[in-house]
Structure formats: structure tokens, C-alpha cells
């Protein structure tokens, strides 16, 4: 674009995670001058300490688990011993090598993102940014270096994308060695003998699943009556069955009131007085936005009681020139949502055409084994009368490809509008559910009917065939 306003428009982005990264690139695409302020590294916690390393660890765990299941396929593996006779080898996980690899991958991803920003013409400042009113940002030096050229930056538009950090409880303070947050797990040199996971939400369930497959004894402490209390009940119940069958100790309706280190052990004390002893403890009790002390309230930006920035569907805050994106906002804390928020915010600020974010169309995935992917309206919302819909559930065990792969745990569930048959949501519990959910997401986004979805050709045999089979079963009679 060549308008004088756009050439001279300056955008300052606080935070280089998915939301800030996309906001910065979009700003340059729109012809604005863009300065990105980041204290830890481009990519933020999503790349350096959260999504990229955690999903890399989970991928390793799933590969480890697959080795133990190949006997069901008729495959035997062995090595010759000293006398030449075959013996079954032990499967060992070198966690030091695993963690070194995932840290390297995270750093490579961060470097790649930085290169893309620099090639696009984004000026990157290492340091901590703070709003000085609605149109100025003050940057304090980062990593021991000064940034004299950028101590004060004028901004026509500011995008706040500062992310969130693990919640720390005073009665269970992490020490980085035995009591850990999820950002500290990647320094471990050995697979924990017995890891206690406090918190059964998405983060707790993902790491509990991963470490069980890596060979740890796992105790999952949940204050609710089931794991994943905010997710689809059928999927959560299925996952808990898989956990229990795999030897995990799932303590439902149990609240950890204190976690202490005693030498090489940790002791979690429950609210009923019971004690759980293990070698390590992961505190997965939620996160808090990094919004304190950066001048938001002084600049007139409204926060909710938890400190999250209140935004609308285009990322606008209560201050017209200030936008926000990502985990620091009141939107869904997903990297994909943060990215779209960042793009949408800048498009709106620059007066370009914009499509407001529709949270009901957002796909999400829980990287457990099996994975759980969802999109659209939920079964509970339908049962509560919030949405009018029909529900159909197809067990994965009936799918021919699943039989070939010896997959028994999982299902495809579709929700369709009563009368019209328009697809309004779905749930997939399956290996690679994160990949399989896309056809349902497209159906929700484009308001396809179950008959239109069923007419798509799925490969035979394939796991995706379960989606068209489910849609075909929901045929709407004209």
C-alpha cells in the first residue's frame, strides 16, 4: 500500500510470541513501520518453553508407546545375545538427549522466526516494554544490554502480546529440580521414577500421558471428579480409562494443599490429610497473564479480575489505539487464536478489511494418547438447550483402518443442526486427531450439511473415513 498515512504509521508490538509475531509481519505487509519488543526471544514462551518443546516431548513419548504396541500387529523385535540367541531388548529413554533435541528445535524455530521478521523489515528490540500512556512505549534493557536508540518509542498503534506464565502457589513453590513448572521440565536428565502431576486440565493431562509412555510411574491429582473437566465428557472418560489401564494413579476429587521437597522425594499433602510421595512433582495449576506492571491500567486499558486484557473480536481494547492478542487476553489461550488475533488487530488498526474472530469455529486439540480434538458447539451446550442439534457418535473400533492399526480407543462424534443438518460441531478422540479434525472444521466454517460432508470422497481404508461414515449415518431425509 502506498498511502502516506500507512507509510508513516508506526506500530509497536510488545511480545514476540505467535500473536506478536503475526502482528509484526502483518504491519509490514500493510506498509507500517514496526518495532517488536521481546525480552526472551522471538517466538516467546510458545516456541521456547511451551508449545514447541512440549509437543516435541509428547511426540517422543508417543513413539515410545508405539514400540510397546507393535506386538499386537504380529511384530517381534530382538537382538542376539552372546550365544547368538535372540532376546527382546529393553526400551530405554535417554531423557537428556530428548531434552537437548527439543531445546535445539525450539531455538531453531525462534531463529527462523527472527530471520523472517528481519527480512520483512521489522526492527527487533531486546528488552521489556512498558506503556507510557496510549502512544508511547518505554523499553528497559534486556540481557544486560542497553537499547539507547529505543528507550522511548512513539506508537500510533500498540499491540500487546505479552503472553502468560505458569501459576505458582506459595504452598508448592517450584525449585526447578524436584518441584517443577512445565517450563522447567526440559532440564531433567533422567525420566522421573514417579512424577506427581497436580492439575488435570489440558497441561496436566498432556504431561501425565507423556511421562506414562516414557516409563514413569504417574500420579495425577485432580480437584474435580474427572480429568479434563472442561472438555467433552465422553472423551474425558475415555482418556481416564486409558490412563488407569496404563497404570496411572488418578486421584479424583482430591486437592493438593501443599507440596514439599524432602531430600530426593516430594510429598504432596491432600486436603483430606493423605500424602502422596514421588520423585518429582509437576505443578499444572493454570497460568497468569504477564500484564502486571507494564502500564496498561495507567494507559486506560481495562483488565478483568484475573489480569487478562479485555478485547473484542478484532482485538480492540478499551483504548482505541491499543490492541491485544494471545494468552494475555480474555480470548482462548491457543497459539492459533493468538496468531489470528495479531493479524486481525493490525488489519483493523490500518483500516483494512477484517473478519472478526469467531471462537465457535476454532479447532483445539489435546495432545494426549489418544489425542482429543474439538470444534464448534459442544454436546453439553446441545443438551442444555443453548444450541439445537442432533448428536451421533461412531466408535473408532468399527473403522477398518483402525482395525488394521489395532486401534481400539477412540471415536468420531458429529453435531448437526436439527432440521437442516448443518454441521455445528464435532469431537474426535483418536491418534492424530489434530489432523483429522480439519474436515469437520471446514464443514463448520462453511456451514456444510452432513449430506454434503458425506458426499466427499474419503480414502478407503482411512481413519478419516470414520468422519464420512458418521456424516452418512446422520442423513437428513428430504
TrEMBL record:
Pyridine nucleotide-disulphide oxidoreductase dimerisation domain location: 364-470
Keywords: FAD, Flavoprotein
Alphabetical list of InterPro entries matching this protein: FAD/NAD-bd_sf, FAD/NAD-binding_dom, FAD/NAD-linked_Rdtase_dimer_sf, Pyr_nuc-diS_OxRdtase, Pyr_nucl-diS_OxRdtase_dimer
Tagged with keyword tRNA processing: no
Domain FAD/NAD(P)-binding: 10-342
Cofactor: FAD
Protein family (similarity comment): Belongs to the class-I pyridine nucleotide-disulfide oxidoreductase family.
NCBIfam families: PRK07845.1
PANTHER family for the chain: MERCURIC REDUCTASE, NAD(P)H DEHYDROGENASE (QUINONE)
Protein name: NAD(P)H-quinone dehydrogenase
Amino acid at each position: 500500500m502506498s498511502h502516506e498515512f500507512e507509510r508513516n504509521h508506526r506500530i509497536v508490538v510488545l511480545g514476540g510470541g505467535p500473536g506478536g509475531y503475526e502482528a509484526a509481519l502483518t504491519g509490514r505487509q500493510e506498509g507500517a513501520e514496526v518495532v517488536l519488543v521481546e525480552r526472551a526471544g522471538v517466538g516467546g514462551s510458545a516456541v521456547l518453553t511451551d508449545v514447541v518443546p512440549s509437543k516435541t516431548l509428547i511426540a517422543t513419548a508417543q513413539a515410545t508407546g508405539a514400540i510397546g504396541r507393535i506386538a499386537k500387529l504380529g511384530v517381534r523385535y530382538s537382538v542376539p545375545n552372546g550365544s547368538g540367541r535372540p532376546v527382546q531388548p529393553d526400551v530405554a529413554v535417554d531423557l537428556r538427549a530428548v531434552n537437548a533435541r527439543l531445546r535445539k528445535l525450539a531455538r531453531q524455530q525462534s531463529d527462523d522466526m527472527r530471520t523472517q521478521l528481519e527480512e520483512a523489515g521489522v526492527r527487533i528490540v531486546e528488552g521489556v516494554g512498558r506503556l507510557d500512556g496510549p502512544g508511547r512505549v518505554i523499553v528497559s534493557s534486556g540481557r544486560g544490554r542497553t537499547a539507547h536508540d529505543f528507550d522511548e518509542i512513539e506508537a500510533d498503534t500498540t499491540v500487546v502480546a505479552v503472553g502468560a506464565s505458569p501459576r505458582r502457589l506459595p504452598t508448592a513453590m517450584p525449585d526447578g529440580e524436584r518441584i517443577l513448572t512445565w517450563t522447567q521440565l526440559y532440564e531433567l536428565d533422567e525420566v522421573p521414577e514417579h512424577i506427581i502431576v497436580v492439575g488435570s486440565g489440558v497441561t496436566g493431562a498432556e504431561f501425565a500421558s507423556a511421562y506414562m509412555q516414557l516409563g514413569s510411574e504417574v500420579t495425577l491429582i485432580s480437584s474435580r471428579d474427572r480429568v479434563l473437566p472442561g472438555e467433552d465428557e465422553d472423551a474425558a472418560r475415555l482418556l481416564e480409562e486409558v490412563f488407569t489401564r496404563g497404570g496411572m494413579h488418578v486421584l479424583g476429587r482430591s486437592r493438593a494443599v501443599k507440596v514439599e521437597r524432602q531430600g530426593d522425594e516430594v510429598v504432596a499433602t491432600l486436603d483430606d490429610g493423605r500424602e502422596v510421595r514421588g520423585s518429582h512433582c509437576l505443578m499444572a495449576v493454570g497460568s497468569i497473564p504477564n500484564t502486571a506492571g507494564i502500564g496498561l491500567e495507567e494507559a486506560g486499558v481495562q483488565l478483568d479480575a484475573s489480569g487478562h486484557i479485555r478485547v473484542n473480536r478484532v482485538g480492540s481494547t478499551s483504548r482505541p489505539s491499543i490492541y491485544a492478542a494471545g494468552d494475555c487476553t480474555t480470548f482462548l489461550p491457543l497459539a492459533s487464536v493468538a496468531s489470528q488475533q495479531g493479524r486481525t488487530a493490525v488489519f483493523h488498526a490500518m483500516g483494512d478489511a477484517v473478519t472478526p474472530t469467531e471462537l465457535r469455529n476454532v479447532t483445539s486439540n489435546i495432545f494426549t494418547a489418544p489425542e482429543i480434538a474439538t470444534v464448534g458447539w459442544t454436546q453439553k451446550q446441545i443438551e442444555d438447550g443453548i444450541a439445537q442439534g442432533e448428536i451421533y457418535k461412531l466408535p473408532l473400533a468399527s473403522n477398518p483402518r483402525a482395525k488394521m492399526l489395532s486401534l481400539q480407543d477412540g471415536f468420531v462424534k458429529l453435531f448437526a443442526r436439527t432440521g437442516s443438518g448443518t454441521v455445528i460441531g464435532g469431537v474426535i478422540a483418536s491418534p492424530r486427531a489434530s489432523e483429522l479434525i480439519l474436515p469437520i472444521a471446514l464443514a463448520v466454517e462453511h456451514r456444510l450439511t452432513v449430506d454434503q460432508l458425506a458426499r466427499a470422497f474419503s480414502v478407503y481404508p482411512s481413519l478419516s473415513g470414520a468422519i464420512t461414515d458418521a456424516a452418512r449415518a446422520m442423513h437428513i431425509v428430504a
